């Protein structure tokens, strides 16, 4: 290899390394790699092929096999995913041997490399030269291989980052949401209510809270089993979500208890929402497989900041008192303090 050419290729590798370390997007990196290959390998078409399973979500669709190439390059890409190849002396014989159809008349030499990192295959790079029969010698192969290996490492890093984010999101979901009803759990509720209380205090606004308990749930759970009890909790959770305001926050507070946070709601407005929910539960029969429909009721205690109490612990304490009073008065009703 001539010294001048060696220096030019080294500068290309440095440019790609610069883009990689600057955390540019994969699409920008792929574009740069294509440009560097075409800069030094004249009359060469460069195809970077990442299938739907190999491509990270942020990778531009322009580089997927279904969009940018025809059947000939797709076939070469499939072969390159399995192994490196280079051919030019007798392309027809090469294509027949590998069952590749639709050889382009303008293609004189081909090369294919898998995009991989640590044994995992993400896609392939396919090069076609339209002028020379033996366009890809050992120096060209080394140059392209270094670029493709660098790209494979970046694809692997991007996918690893996406998997990390997915797992972190799943962990947050498990920490903050009830897995049975898919409602926010008590931990999530406490975070939200503290934030809403600060807003209410800062802007001199009211904030109401409704504590809900399923009537005679433990008796039903003991008689019919945990599976029926769980189905009932899901049934009630769906009703609650359908019958509150868009601004309200519904959570499972624990056991058979739910809670509704009503930002900027006066006590009277909160009672109206709570009673609408109570009526909806009563009028929506719970179907038990093999036993038909069963009427379900709830009791609700409603409190309001600042008229009932001025901090979260006091609000919750008074909400429980109101709920117990609703139970004592015969269940299936709303009591406000």
Structural features, described:
It is a single chain. The protein folds into two domains: 3-173, GAF domain (Beta-Lactamase), CATH 3.30.450.40; 186-336, Reverse transcriptase/Diguanylate cyclase domain (Alpha-Beta Plaits, 2-Layer Sandwich), CATH 3.30.70.270. The chain has helices spanning 3-21, 26-40, 65-68, 71-82, 91-97, 138-176, 186-202, 217-224, 226-242, 267-283, 312-328; strands spanning 44-50, 85-87, 109-117, 120-129, 207-214, 249-254, 257-263, 286-288, 292-294, 298-305, 334-336. Helices cover 51% and strands 20% of the residues. The protein contains eleven helices and eleven strands. Helix 11 (312-328) links the parallel strand 10 (298-305) and strand 11. A five-stranded mixed β-sheet has the order 6-7-5-10-11, sandwiched between helices. A four-stranded antiparallel β-sheet has the order 1-4-3-2, with helices on both faces. Mean pLDDT is 87; it is low at 60-67. Helix 1 packs antiparallel against helix 2 (26-40) and helix 8 crosses helix 9. It is of the alpha+beta class and 337 residues long. The chain is elongated, with a radius of gyration of 33 Å.
Describe the structure in brief:
By secondary structure, the chain is α+β, with helices and mostly antiparallel strands.
Mean pLDDT: 87
Q: Please identify the structural class as seen in this structure.
A: alpha+beta
- The total of helices stands at 11
Helix share bin: 40-55%
Query: What is the CATH homology-level superfamily of the largest domain?
Result: GAF domain
- According to CATH, the fold-level topology of the largest domain is Beta-Lactamase
CATH architecture of the largest domain: 2-Layer Sandwich
Low-confidence stretches: 60-67
Major sheet size, sense and barrel closure:
5 strands, mixed
By CATH reckoning, the class of the largest domain would read Alpha Beta
Question: How many runs of DSSP E, i.e. beta strands?
Answer: 11
- What is the string of SSEs from the N terminus onward? HHEHHEHEEHHEHHEEHEEEHE
Q: Reading side by side through the largest sheet, how are the strands ordered?
A: 6-7-5-10-11
Provide the gyration radius in Å: 33 Å
Strand content: 15-25%
Terminal residue distance: 88 Å
Write down the domain tally.
2
Shape descriptor reads elongated
